Each structure stands twice: as C-alpha cells, then as structure tokens.
Amino acid sequence: MPIRVLSPQLANQISAGEVVERPAAVVKELLENSIDAGATQITLDIEAGGVGLIRVRDNGSGIAQAELPLALARHATSKISSFEELQAVTSLGFRGEALASISAVSRVMLVSRTAEQAQAWQLYCEGGEASNLLKPASHAVGTTFEVSDLFYNTPARRKFLRSAKSEFCHIDDVVRRVALSQWPLELILTHNGKRIRHYRPALDPLQPQPRLAAACGTAFAEHAVICQQQEALLTIHGWVAPPSAARLQNDLQYCAINGRVVRDRVVSHAVRQAYHDRLTAQQHPAFVLFLTLDPQQVDVNVHPTKQEVRFQQARSVHGSIYQAVVAALQGVTGESGPREQRGRAPSEHSLSAQAATIRPPAQEQAIHPTPPPARRSPLSASVAMTPGGWQAAKLAPYQALLQSAPSPPDQLAAPPRPVEPPLAVELPPLAACSFGRFLTVWQQRYAVLEQAQGLSLLSLPLLQRTWQRQQLLPTVPTVIRQQRLLVPLRVEISAEQAAAAQRYQDLLAQLALVLELAEPVVTLLAVPALLYSQDLPPLCLQLFDYLARLPDAEITGVVAWLVQQLTPLEISWQPSQAIQLLAEVERDAPRSLVADTLAWQQPIDLAVVAARFVVE
Q1: pTM to 2 decimal places
Q2: Distance separating alpha carbons of residues 344 and 240, to the nearest angstrom
Q3: pLDDT for 351-391, tens place per residue?
Q4: Is 212 helix (H, G, I), strand (E, B) or coil?
Q5: Which fold has domain 435-616?
Q6: Which residues of 363-397 are buried (b: 16+ CB within 10 A; e: fewer)?
Q7: Fewest CB atoms within 10 Å of the CB: 99, 230, 521, 600?
C-alpha cells in the first residue's frame, strides 16, 4: 500500500480510539468542558447506557457564534495558547481533540449562547463532517452538547461495549468523581427519562457531609476522619476511613489534584503505607483526598485521557500525604475514629458488602470543638509569586474546607447509642510483605526505607529481578499470567534459531510462550503477561540465539536470562518508579518472595555511625 495522507475523517476516528473508548469517556470530556466554561449547574441525560443519547446542558459562559465551527475542529481550544501555559495548566481540558473525536464517531448537535448574543446558534455534525450552516435556536446562556448513535459508523468498536446497565455504571462513576471534585457544582443525572442522581451544591464549607454522603455513602461519611495538612507549596484536605471500615475492593479511593480527579500511584501508595500493618493483604483503605499545589509542580499532559499526572517532587508529595494520613489515623481505635473528626449525613448509598467490616461505635458523646482562627494559607502567598499566575479562585472551596472543621451544632447534643457488640468477621491472613515507609532513593539504585525495626537499604534492581522471576517461573500454586496476542506476530528466523525453537518448544510453552514454527518464520500466539509490553521481535531473536548456544537448557536459566534483559542493573531509578515497584510487590507478591529478603534488602546499622560521635 502506498504512503498517503489520511483523510480528516479517518484521522479523527483514530484519535477517537484513544479518547472515546466508551460512553463514559464522552461524558467525562463534556463535563470537563462545562466546568471550564464556569458552569454552576449541569444536567446530564443518558439513554441506552449512553449509546443512544448523551445530552449535557450547562449554564456556563457559552460559545460565540463565530467560534462554533472551531469548537468541533481538531487541535482547536480556548484553554491554552502557548507552551508556557501548557506547563501550568489550570483548566480540566486543554488538548482540543475531544469534541472532534466525539463528533467523528457519532451524530452531534451543538447549541450555545453567550451573554452578549441575543439568541443561541445551533450546529450539526455527523461522522466528523460538520454542516457549514448555523441555525438560530432557542437556548438560555450556556451550552447543550447532544451526542446520539455513538459508534454508529464504527460497528467494530460498538461490539466491544458492554450492556446498557454496565455502561451506565461507568457513567455514574464519572459523575460521582466530578461531584467529589467540584463542590459548588450542582449535578443532575437521568437515565432513560428517570432521575438517578442529584448532587446538590455544597456551598457551606461547614457542612460538606451531605455531598460526601451522597457520593460515597452514609457509612463512609459517618466513620471517616478528617485528613488535612498545609505546607508552603502543598495543601492536603479530605477524609480517610478508619482501618475498621476497610473495604475488600479499592472502589472508594478518590483523589483530586487542583480540582482534577486522577488515579495516581504515588498517592495510593502513600495512603496504603500510612495504614501499614493495620490492613490485611485483601483489604483496601477508603479515602477522598484533595491536593492543591502550584500547577507548575505537576504535569497533567502525560496521559491521553488526562487520568494520570506526574509530580516534579514525587518524594516530597509522597511523604506529605503519608504524614497527613498517619496524623489523621492517630487515636483511631478499632471501632471508630475520634468523635470530633467524624461527620454524619443522610445519603442514598452505603458501603455495600464491605459494611460488614465496620464496627459500630461503643458510645457517642457530644463534643464541641472550637474552630481554628482564620489564617492566610502559605499556598495563597506562593500563588502571587508564580510566573504568570494561576487561577487560584477555582480552588477556593478546598481552601474554605481546610480552614473549617465540621462539628455538630453547639446547641444539640447527640444522644448516646446503646452499646452493641462488634460484628464477628473472619479477617483474611496478614499481608505477604510490607516494606514500611519509603524515604528516598540513594545513588539512583537503592531505596531507603523506615521500618519498625529501623532503617533498611533495598536494592531496587535486585527486587525487581526477584519479582519478575516469581512472575515467570511456573511454580505451584502460582500460574503464569498469559497474554494472547490479538494479532499473531510473525518473526523471520535463521535455521539455527528455528532448530533451537523446535528443540525447546515445550520448555517455552511452560513459560506461557506459545508459538508455531514454519521455517523460516515463527509465529507468536501468546506470551507471558510480563513480556507483553516489550519489543517482542528482537527479544525473541535474542532468546533463540541464547537457546542455540546451550547444550541443555533449563527453565530456571532461561528465566534468569529473560530477567536480565528486562532489568539492566545500570538503570537510574526515580522516586516515582521506586514507589510504583514497591506498591506492586506489596499488592501482588506471594509469600514466597520474602523468603530470602536479605538478598535484596539489608538493615542499616546506625549505631555504628552514632558511636563515632564524641560527646564532651
């Protein structure tokens, strides 16, 4: 096939494959646009799980008549205009590709009106081809974006969608995340004409519990304790559940960074380490955290769907979150948290099956804490010094929440509840391993850890190699995770390589590497999940060369060779990479991994160094 420039329609559909993977992704992009437009009320209408219809109506600033066609154009945005603004993004959207990608795989109706216009204007687009005719319409100040027949022109993509109920559950979760990150915003969600959610605005920072309970459930709002910490360039505020309210799934872990809800490994690992030995391997902490920091200290342009970020000072952020959660959990007993830090609110949700692990408080008392005096946040002072400035006004609700401590009214005293015995729950066995608190990376190869018995030095390359060997060795009861290739990979090999592949085909099958031989071509059908993201053709050729040199290969030797190719010892480790590895091992490693801990972790004897000091 000759090289040619792709048509705009095809290019948009390729982009849609990255951004618009399901109806929930469309909802996320449209809600972010409405929030960036300054909307205080958004109504979201869904039909058939989002495949039939997605209609988002807001009362934001609207789009001018002359800019309506540009709104659906690729790489057209009003959020940024220079590279400097990209480095300090304060808006939720900024790529300028979402609306073009959505319109490429659906039928779109865009109606908008600004405060300066006497009437609204309407634009229709189908399959990425927008009509050049703008029609007058009736609409209040704001925008309505209507998406119908999603993936009508890409039936292959539509086949990958789940049932309407499952797709709506994903949409419901997106709306919940937005509701948690944007407290003054009123959100109404309907499905097939029936109102499902109504998140009322939390305008009073002294009473955030109704909104928290509506999003996370009554049990979480009642048992969670306040977590807050304020530093020069970082403010942390939110709620964490006590260990007794741990869940069997990580489905109640929300983190908003500068108003953007993300899934970040640094945050989740810091919270997990703060609980340390209070949770078992099968339990997960529940938390809702808001992080406010200088936008120049966090890179949001690292993921196509903007669901991940990268901190410039990952170790500092990790340590601050760890300290904040540890401080919040201090004094929390196995039954309940401190009464002055717990809120209560009615809600329509609960902690579902995990509510069984929550033990009711033995007794409640009315406590009237005195709110701390209002003070200027150090973060507010640092905002003015930021080059170019950034929109700190959008983060005002979090600052207001930080400066206030929720408490029951002074005039009312909560009546004591009768003492109830704790629920008898059989807890799973203890975690396989726990590294303790991560401090820093030394010489770009070693992690310094703080544990109950003291400090220790951990070799990151050796730990990764040990962990990778555990994933590749087919030991009982461990089963190698196999990943079948959607498109079989054909690799041309030499006669010597073909002979080696034929000779050791059974051994490779034990490693979950399935292949078909038809010299001079070998076809890969499946590989170990650990190798799926690697550059497979050169790796396979090197593996066959290695096997050809061996008179009698053993599986342990082959695994050791593979691990050496995957993890060079000279690699430079960053704090975020170390935290990610430790979190993965703590979560998934079997107990057999810690059988020979001294091979990759050694204690640091500070007494020898301390003895060198001379006290006069």
Answers
A1: 0.57
A2: 14
A3: 333 333 333 333 333 333 333 333 333 333 333 333 333 44
A4: helix
A5: Ribosomal Protein S8; Chain: A, domain 1 (3.30.1370)
A6: ebeeeeeeeeeeeebebeeebeeeeeebebebbeb
A7: 521
